[in-house]
Amino acid sequence: MKTTVKVLSASIAAIALAYGGYWLGSKQNQDIQVNTSQGTRKILYYRNPMGLPDTSQTPKKDPMGMDYIPVYEGEDQAASPDAKGKILYYRNPMGLPDTSKTPKKDSMGMDYIPVYENEVSGPNLVRISPEKIQRLGVKTAAAELRQTGGDVRAVGQITFDERAVATIAPRYEGWVERLVASAVGDYVQRGQVLFEAYSPDIYAAQQEYQLAIAGERQLSSASEDARAGVARLSSGSVQRLKQWEVSDADIKRLQQGAAPRRTVAFHSPVSGVIVEKTVLQGARFMPGEALLRIADLSRVWLQLDLAEQDLGAAQVGKVVNVTLDAWPGEVFKGKVDFVYPVLNAETRTAKVRVVLANPGNRLKPGLYAHAVLAGSASGQQISVPESAVIDSGKRQLVLISLGEGRFEAREIRAGSRSNGFIAVQSGLSVGEEVVMTANFLIDAESNLKAAVSNMATASQEKAATASTAASAPTPASHEHGGH
Q: Global pTM?
């Protein structure tokens, strides 16, 4: 019993001591504030310790227990409440689309932030000094109505027509005894001899076929089974020779009684130019080994990289005008042959195949080309220069110039591109000034990343706030693609 009384007495004494210390500390703090205000400088108001646009006329703490910082007379007179004018309304401290005509707190106990008459305040606001703006060379352009749609421009590369390329890979083992197609760039005709090779297998098959033919003649009056056996031997020999790509003319010559040839000629299956050669005179080759590659260059492909938003202009059969630096001033006509089904996730472009006639073989594979696809005009839309749009991968943003070094990061929904401009489907009005140059420098020199991060969804903001409240203050995480 005595022990319990002693414990209770000690607990009460500790609580009283803690309360007394808290009251004394608060009293000393108030005395310090009063003494300071009575000194040479007067306290105008108290600002948020984390730099948020939130002020107070009396000392207070933020939701994490940090004291608001006093602002003295002459220190920031331009930012005093009197200079801002009257309070228009109070906005949500987390940037949610919620305002109030009277002071209130959000669900987490945070005070709503006042918005003053002469102050442009918001979670997406960026402020930069006029000196810094001049140093960065910031230029702006007004959003204006422009004719959108129209022609679509793209770049690409001339390649071989894969359907007109033949690979010479014999199906038998042999040795090259005479090489006719001796150099890359040589033009060969369909049926022309490319090389002559010695193959023990083909030579044996020729001899076997001749024996079968002779047996058929000798057994013409023999039994039906004997004649059938010789016929099967003859047919098998012919099939092997055909599978080894021995020509019909050589087989017919054997039927007429000619002696087997030691070498066999390999004929070109197509007309074209030799674009690749690995075979050498006297070299041995194995079945399936690629010796030559022949391409018909009378028709070539142009592989275009078309932006995602321009894919609507790529319709099979549409005429494409093509120009090349190699032939300045000359326009080549082609047609869209195929639109590849897969989009490149990194570049946000898709491959479009254009077929071009190539008289005189002037369109050489490997050349770069510029293409124009005729598009249909879609009327006038609000448009801004392409350089004004910051694409983070998840959203498109522009910086709106509000004057006096104030910029607003605003999310837009971009549309089609045409002649260096991007149509804006939502998020922008005609006449608003957007930053068209140095927007990434502004990003690096200001709090744009923080402004963009405040444009996240409400659920993400609440989760981030709960995590911050449960731990020590840490810098806000920023999200901005491309930096």
A: 0.52
